[in-house]
Amino acid sequence: MDSGLAVGTRMGGRAASASLLNAVSELIPADERVVVIDDSKELALLRDHVVTLEACPNDAKGRGEVTIRQLLRITLRMRPDRIVIGELRGGEALDLVQAMTSGHGGCLITLHATYPRDVATRLETMAMMAGIEMPLAALRAQIASAVDIVIQASRFRDGTRKVTHISEITGCDMSKGTYQINDLFLRKVKGVDSEGRVLSKLVPTGNLPDCMETIRAAGLDAPAAVLEASWRREQKGQGS
């Protein structure tokens, strides 16, 4: 992808979001150089071309701190094909968004947010923590351009964690200050079984991603289930 993917977690633990990010990273082509930035070594990418950088807190005398933001700036000089950040928490979001819109595509990140739309607003809030004055409209435009796909994971009342949304950020309505979201997959909850387990299924909405041209330029296509759901939706629309 030219831009990036964000994994949003709702009521999910750090280990759960790391597991999901590890799974998604398996799709990165084997010949690409990947730099992983984390504050605790929970990401384990099983591949040849990986450089792992780990943040460090201050020592007892208040010395030696190495932040995620410092590591990100170092990473940008290493010319990586992909940047993977275990969890975005503060002002480093601005550096990342600007990197994603200036040639460092294919980034993967996790952050805590309730719904896909909240992922964009959380990025916006964290970017403003960088302490750099920037017009809000310009920041929103960059975020909308930077992030292609959001994978949202939530914890259900039976204790399981599941992907609830796979959505695309398609733009930002500047007049309303809201991000435009195209839901590609949604989890449908059917009920609870006799043992209290939530019965659900992740299903395609029938919407095709706006970034299909980018996907096909990479030699890929949308999953068959997405194309079939889109065809059924189109047929239903023509029938009405």
List keywords for this structure.
7 helices; 9 strands; alpha/beta
What would you note in describing this structure?
With 240 residues, this protein is of the alpha/beta class. The protein has one domain: P-loop containing nucleotide triphosphate hydrolases (Rossmann fold, 3-Layer(aba) Sandwich), CATH 3.40.50.300. The protein contains 7 helices and 9 strands. A 9-stranded mixed sheet has the order 3-2-4-5-1-6-7-8-9, with helices on both faces. A hairpin with a 5-residue loop joins strand 8 and strand 9. Helix 2 packs parallel to helix 3, helix 3 crosses helix 4 and helix 4 crosses helix 5. The longest helix is centred in the last third of the chain and has 16 residues. The chain is globular and about 70 Å long.
CATH architect. name: 3-Layer(aba) Sandwich
Strand content: 25-35%
Work out the number of β strands. 9
The number of helical elements comes to: 7
Binned, the helix content reads 25-40%
Reading off the top of the CATH hierarchy, the class is best stated as Alpha Beta
Structural class: alpha/beta
CATH fold category name: Rossmann fold
Q: Unreliable runs, pLDDT <50, ≥5 residues?
A: none
Radius of gyration: 19 Å
Give the N-to-C terminal Cα separation: 36 Å
| Helix and strand element order | EHEEHEHEHHEEEEHH
Tell me the count of domains.
1
CATH superfamily: P-loop containing nucleotide triphosphate hydrolases
Overall pLDDT level: 87
Name the overall outline: globular
For the report, how would you describe the main beta sheet? 9 strands, mixed
Strand arrangement in the largest pleated sheet: 3-2-4-5-1-6-7-8-9
